[in-house]
């Protein structure tokens, strides 16, 4: 099941109305998400393939390194990535080059 969360975008492009964070849920006892590096990225890529440039799409889910984030942005065409737990574990991560 796809679930999405709209987030505010500061992009000034008139053709982009907002942003979407895609994730697969995992909040039901019968769900058993297969986690691993960037495990939510396939959902974000599928959404991005459908919406194109009409909406910014962000990926979440165990994005743990700068190169991994760069690949999602540059090779897979996503607009944003979120690295929540990664920054909690290493708050200085942003100081390291990707």
Task: Write structural notes for this entry.
The protein is α/β, with parallel strands linked by helices. The chain has one domain (3-95). The protein is built from 3 helices and 4 strands. The chain has helices at 41-51, 66-75, 84-89, and strands at residues 3-7, 19-23, 56-59, 80-81. It has a 4-stranded mixed beta sheet with strand order 1-2-3-4. It is globular and about 35 Å long. The model is unreliable at 1-14 (pLDDT under 50).
Beta-sheet strand percentage? 15-25%
Provide the spatial order of strands within the biggest beta sheet. Answer: 1-2-3-4
Helical content, roughly?
Answer: 25-40%
Output the number of helix runs. 3
Beta-strand segment tally: 4
Number of domain modules: 1
State the assembly state of the protein chains: single chain
How are the SSEs placed, and which strands pair?
Elements: E1 3-7, E2 19-23, H1 41-51, E3 56-59, H2 66-75, E4 80-81, H3 84-89
Parallel strand pairs: 2-3, 3-4
Antiparallel strand pairs: 1-2
Using brief descriptors, characterize the structure shown.
single chain, 98 residues, alpha/beta, 4-stranded mixed β-sheet, globular, disordered N terminus
